[in-house]
Design goal:
The chain is mostly beta strands. Helices cover 0% and strands 43% of the residues. It has no helices and 15 strands. It has a four-stranded parallel β-sheet with strand order 2-5-9-13, with no helix packed on it. A four-stranded parallel β-sheet has the order 3-6-10-14, with no helix packed on it. The two termini are 22 Å apart.
């Protein structure tokens, strides 16, 4: 069985954070900005081609102003057979508006 678990990603900024799609393969994603956060899709999914998958990584976004995102996915799944782990927590905290243009999935 092949399990894929990625590294954690931590980005901190006094101003804005702007990203495109990020994939960590099970590693946590943490973005902390003094102003705005704008992202594409964020995927901290954990998966296994067969067998037991690890837990999905947590996604945490904290902004002093607005958060604008596409889909956020921290789920866990096994592609063919086996057992999925737990989905990672998704936490959004903003001083102003939070807008998600896509799905939130922590299954």
């Amino acid at each position: 069985a092949a399990n894929y678990t990625g590294a954690e990603l931590l980005v901190e900024a006094k101003g804005d954070i702007t990203t495109q799609t990020i994939r960590t393969n099970g590693g946590a994603i943490t973005l902390s900005a003094g102003a705005n956060i704008s992202t594409g899709n964020l995927f901290s999914n954990s998966y296994s081609s067969s067998g037991t998958a690890e837990n999905g990584g947590a996604i945490t976004l904290s902004a002093g102003a607005n958060i604008n995102t596409e889909s956020l996915s921290s789920n866990s799944f096994s592609l063919t057979s086996g057992t999925a782990g737990n989905g990672g927590a998704i936490t959004l905290s903003a001083g102003a508006n939070i807008n998600t243009a896509g799905d939130l999935d922590s299954s």
